[in-house]
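Hi everyone, sorry if this is the wrong subforum. Our group has a chain we'd like a structural model of before ordering constructs, and none of us has done structure prediction before. Sequence below.
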Amino acid sequence: MSTPAAAPERIIAEEPKRGHLARIFHAFTYRDFRLLWFGAFTSSSGTWLQDTALSWLLLQVTNDPAYLGYNAFLSTAPILIFTLIGGVLADRFDRRRILIMSQWSQLAFALSLASLAFFNVQTMLLVTSALALSFLTGCVQAFGGPAYQSLIPMLVDKKDLPNAIALNSIQFQLARVVGASIGSFPFAIFANQMLAAAVSFGLNGLSFIAVIFALMSLSVRHIPYTPTGGMGSQLREGLNFVWHQEALRSLTFLAFVSTFFGVQVMTFLPVFARDILKVGASGNFKMVAVSGVGAVLGFLTVAGAGHIAGKGQKTLVMQFCFGLTIIAFTQTQWIGLAYVMLLLAGFFMSILFAMIMSLVQLIVEDKMRGRVMSIYMVAFRGGMPLGALITGFLSKHYLLPNVLLVEGALLSLIAVIFLLSPTKLKEH
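Answer:
Right subforum, don't worry. Here is the predicted structure as tokens:
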């Protein structure tokens, strides 16, 4: 039975000591990683630009915060449906080709949404079409996500994998800052919000060209292994592997609760911007950008730390702190303090996510990587739509800040329970 090709071992007699800055950006010394990073950064900037603009537009045209929850649910619900299949495909087929097909599809969806906004179609048709396109985008991401996460370890040596994961996370969060910052310009330039949204969606569509070019330029090649059974048996093999690894099982659960309870404050930021803090569209983009700055600082901290002992225990501490900052944000009425809390929330959230991802990637072997990463992504990404849907429903019956306060408290409580339990996660 053939196995996926791993990156060739590099023989190093003695690794020279590197300065702090060199440690942070060491994965950039790998040509393929560097190329994919910049392509993905450009595309992610467009994605954040569109997501922020679409959330604001949906709130304005419907005047109903629940639509933010519907959009978040539909855009990520396909993760629950298709990602496990996507993980099997990532082990069976060329991961680059899966990703390229995913990017072309998302480009087409973004330009379709831009056309609907540009021609100022009837309001409910626009809303329905936007939600449908969000669902379709989530579908192709469900297949592209496991392939992308499985591709990263093939671009660097194993010893540099935690650094590469942190830098990869940095590009996504730095893109949040860039995308949200760029996104404020169309709304400032054009008085017509539909036209401003159309420009934002169109820019996102064009941004996919960068990552498509990067993927086509990679020198690394994935040689899929020859499966011994059908897709069903392979899927069961992956599920059994995760279930019988207590640390992986715990990490998968923590990934779910951190997005189910923790990410909803970011989803419903437009409500705080318009109705609570009263800072408008500009303030909404600024809050998204500030949380992105905090996330970048957190990932830079992880990237510069290199290999650290006690990752499991530190992960739980970060989750506890993340929950506390959510609680503090929901109680503030001053925009200055809100920025500080969002900065800290982004900081703790990014360290939490980076450490969970690093632990999962380091535990799993390459021939199982696609399937294990798909299971992880179902938990990590699956918590977002379920949490958004429930939070949106509860916001119709209770004050949104109170709903998010309870979610932050539950996030911290779960971290405390794990810290006091004898879980094997704390041994890593």
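For your construct planning: Confidence is low (pLDDT under 50) at residues 1-15. The CA atoms of residues 291 and 342 lie 5 Å apart.
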